[in-house]
Amino acid sequence: MVGRTMAVDLSKDHAVTSVDRDKQALEQLSSQNIQTQTADLSDKAAVQTIIADADLVVGAVPGFMGYQTLKWVIEAGKDIVDISFFPEDPFGLDELAKEKGVVAVMDAGVAPGMSNIIAGYHNERMDVQEFVCYVGGLPTERKWPYEYKAPFSPIDVIEEYLRPSRLVLNGELHEKEALSEPEILEFPGVGELEAFNTDGLRTLIKTMNIPNMKEKTLRYPGHIELMRVLRETGFFNYTEMQVGESRIRPIDLTTQLLFPKWKLGEAEEEFTVMQILVRGTENGRSVSYQYDLLDRYDAATGASSMSRTTGYTCTAISRLVLDGDYRQTGVSPPEFVGKSETCFNKLLALLEQRGVHYKSEITVS
Predict the structure, then answer these.
(1) How crowded is residue 8: how many other Cβ atoms within 10 Å of its Cβ?
(2) Is the N-terminal amide bond of 211 cis, ω within 30° of 0?
(3) What is the DSSP string of 232-271?
(4) The model's pTM
């Protein structure tokens, strides 16, 4: 869903080829000015053949494929902007990217992505003492039993509930269990949501010297308990177990059962909500910046909110790379892009043009 939105957006001013192993998924682009190609993107030779004539590659594969795909693109000497959100350390490819003269921007979505960009922008201009991000994508209609739909790869959602959550408190790195430390928060236009720890800070832990940082995921109240029951019972386990005469991984059964219930319908209304708080000292004054995003499904284009907020951030960064506004070689998390005032302002303007509005508020004390 996100890949399709990005392909359509970039095709407005670039020649675009969209590649997927699923021919049916590509058929939805047939009415657009987009070339399509069916291929197995777990095949290195296929990937490098496909991208041979490209000026820029946009990576939008599932997280478990993301790191190897990024490596193959860098090895081919191609610039890439990626939203695969893989678990591996991206800086393991930094030296290779610099050697190849490649601009490789990863985590180029909404969060991680735009959240990092905002952190990078302010960290360059003030002494930031605290960075907090609350973010989630949810269906407008709350349907029993889960009141949730996955607007991106569902297996990546489950991974969020398994990986320990890293946060920074008083300058020290702490690990918390995913789904822990729940909060109930009120959001205008949405109502009450529950926030819980997930491992969303990612590269900010290494790149930003901010003493207090955390990111929490937002869901409708009750979601934490449902997911904890499944997790603690073993439904998310990857270790095979004997069931009758067969050996299966519980996660494989769980995904087969959950994904049909989590699948977001093509015209199903959903929204993305994000609130970012940046607090610190600027020009000798205590300053607090708050950014708020509430974006909804676009019935006119059929684009989901998550595909818009994630995809348009990625296509905006892609344009910065193609237009020469951002040309730092090596692996770049989004906060590196956000350091540049030119890039930051152009990103916000490109998003605004596409109806993705970030409201900002400053408090000085």
Answers:
(1) 23
(2) no
(3) HHTTT--S-EEETTEEE-HHHHHHHHHHHHHBPPTT--EE
(4) 0.93
DSSP secondary structure of 293-343: EEEE-BTTTTB-HHHHHHHHHHHHHHHHHHTTS----EEE-HHHHHT-HHH
Torsion over CA of 27, 42, 153 and 151, rounded to 10 degrees? -30
State the burial class of residue 245 (Cβ atoms within 10 Å of its Cβ: 0-12, 13-18, 19+): exposed
| Per-residue pLDDT tens over the stretch 2-21 | 999 999 999 999 999 999 99
Q: How confident is the model at residue 327 (pLDDT cuts 50, 70, 90)?
A: very high
Q: What is the pLDDT of residues 118-151, one digit of tens each?
A: 999 999 999 999 999 999 999 999 999 999 998 6
At residue 3, the pLDDT reads 92
- How buried is 192 (Cβ within 10 angstroms: 0-12 exposed, 13-18 middle, 19+ buried)? exposed
Residue 63 pLDDT: 87
2-109+306-356 — its CATH code?
3.40.50.720
Every domain of the chain and the residues it spans = 2-109+306-356, 114-305
- The matching CATH number, chosen from 3.40.50.620, 3.40.630.10, 2.70.70.10, 3.30.360.10, for 114-305 is 3.30.360.10
Which amino acid is residue 275, in one-letter code? Answer: Q
